Input
Amino acid sequence: MVQNTAVANTAPRRVLVVDDSRAIQAIIRRILETGDMEPVQVRTASNGAEALDQVDSFRPDLVLSDWHMPGVSGIEMLQALRQMGHTDMAVGFITTETAADCLSQAHSNGAAFVLHKPFEDRVLRNAVAQALRSEPAPRPAPAPSPARPPAVESVAQLQQLLFMHLGTRSYELNKHFDEAPWVEQCPQLVALYSSAGRKGAYALGLLDAATVCLVGGMAAGHSPDEIRKALGRGQPSQPHVEHAKRFMLALAGQLRKRTATDVPAFNAAKLSSQPFDKLATVIERNNGRSDFELRLPGIGEGRISIFLT
Output
């Protein structure tokens, strides 16, 4: 038997299969490892969090993911990959999800393709071969990363926390690199955090008025029209503020620990109509910073900023 030298000398392409069904994992592996495809090396993960833990060591050429999974979903994983700097890593979805807004969200986040279960072997092989052959789409040069470390431990876990409060997966959370201090933007919800054994504030969290309306409105079960009206007024209602405070309370568990003994805890939060005196100093001299843009398609967008003091 004469072996195809070109194929034999080709390093296997790395494919990460992400699905909470071991049966589906096995089916996809069989399809990719048989037939006339170029050699592939396949690893598996059971949800988005496991996949994110593997990407830096495995460096997959392609990630094949289900949409609905426990913990971190497929779209949350894709958004986290982009925010982690893996802008050119190909990601394809294999899912039962057919909702138009979900498919739009997949493509807007750079998904290479979306296949629906059940799928034919030939269709999957063709989609994978095309994704592995395609040159990465040209993307704008990423903005420079902030000089200081992030203030949150995990973007994926922050996304999961938002999902719990928003009650919907139809949102986008993107890193925001604008270094401008939003000292003059009011009203905004200001949350203070402490840590056992430390004097003074450990961290500061800021939600602009739009985010208070978005997070608080969705958590309160308000309709998109009601939330849009609040956004138009630029003034969150009291229920919006109370629900947004609960989100800031839960955010304490996502703050990065500066030392092994740190235990960040929520102290208080207040909707401030004017900036307090030390805000500019905290922003300028922070020990860690994370800024995000929260967007609910068709409703509005706002800002989340966290600073370690």
In short: The chain has eleven helices and eleven strands. Residues 1-9, 135-146 have pLDDT under 50 and may be disordered.
